């Protein structure tokens, strides 16, 4: 258990760049360095994580902890990954209330972002070799990339890819199954992504004056229905906290989103900032527990099903499709991040050197991020 806690504490304190980068760092540590899972097993959990609501990389940490040490491992991995980011964001919120602005972070991000691109690129290459097993899956991956780049919702891309693979698998076994069976399997794989959010919407509290319990319920509802990127989180927070309840102003919400984006770990710790601004340390705790609690429940319920799904031919096909679609989504995100991160010769050089260090010399990504942060600070202060 201590090995799980130490690993995810370190990842939570150094994992910049959003879910794609977090998952890439987990793959490096769990698959390449420690051998706790094979790449195929890692991909299966990645695909399952993408089909349930909540923060993908945090849920991936929980899955990995559960495979290592059961339910205690799930809790330890999840808490360890969340805690560093929550503490850092809480400190930023304290500084924000005291000084009226966020501390300067441009230099750190200038150096760190190119390393993030290299980490994600290395993970995409290694995971892609395991996931893209046939020409059909390669075509499906290409189609998923095009769909994601065109703005199709992430969940629709995942479900379409899984359904397509299931239909192909069923139709290749005449006399054994029907198209109806394939549709049933695809619908079953997506149950946690469709039914659970619908049920959880009953948790929305009525409009009320600010209170810790009301804040907890708002954040729990968001954590139970959230799919997609940090921009989706922004839409939920704005609708509930700015427009419906009037607890935050627009500038405060944007500052909270910025705090979540510029710190390591899960971006959902944005609500830690909001909770601190609204209710001090108790508010930060209520908001943080609220938004992450549904993820612990969803992973605990879905985690034991993943190995069983792989033993079913039709469900296994669904997982194959979802896995390649998940990597396609990562590829699109990394392309978007790359356009924003590689802005001059220095950032291109940092990315290239980091990629070489990862692939050729297997340097730990945490060291690369630390060195890049120092280079970024020096470059922006010069």
Commentary on this structure:
81% of the residues lie in helices and 0% in strands. By secondary structure, the protein is an all-alpha fold. Helix 2 packs across helix 5, helix 7 (154-171) packs antiparallel against helix 8 (179-189) and helix 11 runs antiparallel to helix 12 (250-262). Residues 177-207 have low confidence and may be disordered. It has helices at 2-14, 19-33, 39-50, 56-99, 106-131, 135-149, 154-171, 179-189, 191-200, 212-225, 230-244, 250-262, 270-302, 305-311, 313-341, 345-361, 365-381. The chain has a domain at 2-132 and 327-381.
Which helices and strands, and how do they pair?
Blueprint: H1 2-14, H2 19-33, H3 39-50, H4 56-99, H5 106-131, H6 135-149, H7 154-171, H8 179-189, H9 191-200, H10 212-225, H11 230-244, H12 250-262, H13 270-302, H14 305-311, H15 313-341, H16 345-361, H17 365-381
Helix pairs in contact: 1-4, 2-4, 2-5, 3-4, 3-15, 4-13, 5-15, 5-16, 5-17, 6-7, 6-15, 7-8, 7-15, 10-13, 11-12, 12-13
Q: Uncertain segments of ≥5 residues (pLDDT<50)?
A: 177-207
Number of strands: 0
- Helix and strand composition category: mainly alpha
Radius of gyration: 21 Å
Question: How large is the count of helical segments?
Answer: 17
DSSP strand (E) fraction?
Answer: under 5%
Intertermini distance? 44 Å
**Share of helix, binned:** over 70%
Estimate the mean pLDDT confidence.
Answer: 81
Shape call: globular
Q: Helix and strand string, N-terminal first?
A: HHHHHHHHHHHHHHHHH
């Amino acid at each position: 258990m201590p090995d799980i806690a130490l690993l995810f504490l370190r990842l939570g304190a150094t994992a910049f760049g959003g879910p794609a980068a977090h998952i890439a760092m987990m793959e490096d540590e769990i698959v390449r360095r420690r051998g706790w899972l094979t790449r195929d097993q890692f991909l299966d959990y990645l695909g399952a994580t993408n089909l349930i609501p909540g923060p993908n990389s945090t849920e991936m940490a929980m899955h990995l902890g559960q495979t290592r040490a059961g339910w205690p491992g799930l809790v330890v991995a999840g808490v360890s990954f969340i805690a560093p980011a929550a503490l850092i964001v809480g400190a930023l919120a304290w500084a924000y209330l005291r000084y009226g602005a966020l501390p300067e972070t441009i230099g750190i991000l200038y150096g760190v972002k190119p390393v993030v691109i290299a980490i994600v690129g290395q993970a995409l290459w290694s995971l892609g070799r395991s996931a893209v097993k046939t020409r059909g899956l390669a075509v499906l991956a290409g189609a998923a990339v095009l769909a994601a780049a065109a703005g199709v919702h992430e969940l629709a891309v995942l479900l379409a890819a899984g359904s397509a693979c299931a239909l192909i698998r069923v139709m290749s076994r005449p006399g054994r199954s029907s198209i109806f069976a394939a549709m049933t399997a695809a619908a079953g794989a997506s149950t946690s992504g469709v039914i659970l959010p619908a049920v959880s919407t009953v948790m929305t509290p009525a409009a009320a004056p600010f209170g810790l319990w009301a804040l907890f319920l708002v954040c729990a509802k968001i954590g139970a229905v959230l799919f997609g990127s940090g921009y989706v989180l922004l839409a939920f927070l704005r609708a509930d906290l700015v427009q419906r309840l009037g607890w935050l102003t627009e500038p405060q919400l944007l500052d909270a989103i910025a705090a979540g984006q510029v710190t390591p770990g899960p971006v959902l710790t944005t609500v830690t900032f909001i909770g601190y601004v609204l209710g001090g340390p108790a508010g930060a705790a209520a908001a943080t527990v609220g938004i992450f609690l549904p993820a612990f429940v969803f992973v605990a319920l879905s985690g034991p099903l993943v190995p069983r799904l792989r033993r079913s031919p039709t469900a296994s096909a669904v997982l194959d499709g979802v896995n390649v679609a998940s990597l396609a989504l990562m590829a699109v995100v990394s392309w978007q991040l790359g356009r924003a991160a590689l802005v001059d010769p220095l950032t291109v050089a940092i990315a290239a050197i980091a990629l070489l260090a990862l692939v050729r010399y297997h340097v730990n990504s945490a060291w690369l991020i630390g060195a890049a942060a120092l280079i970024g600070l020096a470059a922006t202060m010069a």
